[in-house]
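Supplementary Note 2. Why include the ligand at all?

Several targets in our set were suspected to adopt different conformations when bound, so apo predictions alone were not considered sufficient. For every target with a known small-molecule partner we therefore ran a joint prediction. The input for thiamine diphosphate is given below.
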Amino acid sequence: MAEIDGGRIAARQLKAAGVDTIFGVVAGPMIEVFAGAQAEGLRVVGCRHEENAGFMASAWGYQKRKPGVVVAGSGPGMTNTVTPMYVATASAMPLVVLGGSTYGAMRGVGGFQEADQVAFAAPACKWTAQVDSTQRIGEFVHLALGKAVSGRPGAVYLDFPGHLVGRRIPEEDVPVRRAPEVARPHPDPAAIDRLADLLAEAEHPLVLIGKGAAWADAGASLARLVDRGIPYLTSPMGRGVVPDDNPHFVNAARSAALAGADAILMVGGRFNWIFGFGRAPRYREDVRIAQIDIEAEEMTSAAEIELAIVADAAVAVESLCDALEGRKLATARSSWLADLREQRARNEVEIEQASGLDSVPINPYRLVREVREAASRDAMFSVDGETIMGVCRVLLPSYRARTRLNAGTTGCMGTGVPYAIGAKLAHPERPSLAVLGDYAFGAAAMEVETCARVGVNVVFVVANNEGIAGHLIQDHMLPPDSPRIASLLPASYEKMIEMVDGHAERVERPEEIRPALDRALAADRVALVHVRVDPKATRISGGNYLQ
Ligand SMILES: Cc1ncc(C[n+]2csc(CCOP(=O)(O)OP(=O)(O)O)c2C)c(N)n1
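The joint prediction is reproduced in token form.
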């Protein structure tokens, strides 16, 4: 009778769920899972650190609308995945970590790499479990995959005691489970009518778009809604759900929009720090707030929500558009939209001016303008760093849902490199650019070797301002004459790509940026454009770098 080991059982279940790529660092006791994945025809991306594997898988899953899967070895291999699990849950990205743990007979007596891994994972995850037999591995993997994408996506952790992974059992004892087709939750029609009244009667309505709308692919419905004449703002990763060149997009007049709105509809976002908690002083005291979210628990937050609709964002917004069809909106009689457009134009003047500077060392606004002009509309951007992320926020557009990845809800540096790799593996046909500070690049730089080895042609753009936020923290926030702890060497980062025979560019002058970017985008291999930018340059506008 044919036998099968626990690793192969896990791999079969992954394949049945449509997962064709997994990430990880090969280690015991999960060798059989990696081997099983290869035997089942899955692509195994061997990474240089489990944390990076976790971020790559999160980005891959977010792009594919499937669970991203990481396989990690026991002890420190698994604990290295805790940060990506926390980030994935906070940023609503679907991530499944399969972690090997110490063998049963060694538990409690100082087994090799023994750790309470489920306890490490628990606060970072929406669900955790430990496999209890080889027979049930497929079932547990099925559960883990489903939990990661159900409702609001997030991280789940499944623990594999080592002795269960390598054990062989008769093949016919192993059923493969099929993922359910989950219909999109529809909204209550009466609530949609109330929401239509709320927006139709408001003089200063505003729509807020979060990455839940990106996940739900609500772009077409949202465009139909805002095109009725309603301005909208997005969260950083909600960019592109409605293309940024929509005339109702007012992120550049964000403070004025939040402060002036009398009725707000939040779609797939949260009233956390990114949206100023949805209350005064950034909002009007008397603002009326409605919210559409897939999670009922989201409706109890810092903000006072008047009307909460638990539903899929795309379906709910489409129903709302139908309910508004043929109705006149009170805002059409006000100057609300025109005023915000004027404010937007005023705010953009200084930024556009900075982006035209041809000073040496290069101003970061000039760099990002060149990136904007070199990239195609379908480009995917991963942005990571402090100053550079703030500059990208105001200058770099997005035109499609889920093409913008950044440090997210947790503000996690070190995501940019792996996110760009995960996105490229999900959509090899689209350009994937990572625009990174020198610290942010360094946090995961060794993954350039993964790119070269696996054949992932990401373009890394490193804005090197010689430190954490350039010299800002060192010179203005630390005591004068203190050791330069926030500074970094002006290292030759292009050499890190030469090391793996990638395409390397070093740029010192503004006129060199565009040709270097064009060559990097055309190179048929991983590429890095190292740009020396002014360490003294800071962001122009106020607000947090993520907002
Ligand atoms: C994991 C993590 N560690 C530390 C921080 C604190 N932090 C915020 S921005 C930043 C680095 C910014 O420097 P860089 O990436 O060079 O970009 P720049 O601001 O210079 O453009 C750090 C370390 C963080 N947000 N996340």
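The longest helix spans residues 336-355. The chain has a mean pLDDT of 96. Comparable summaries for the other entries are listed in the accompanying table.
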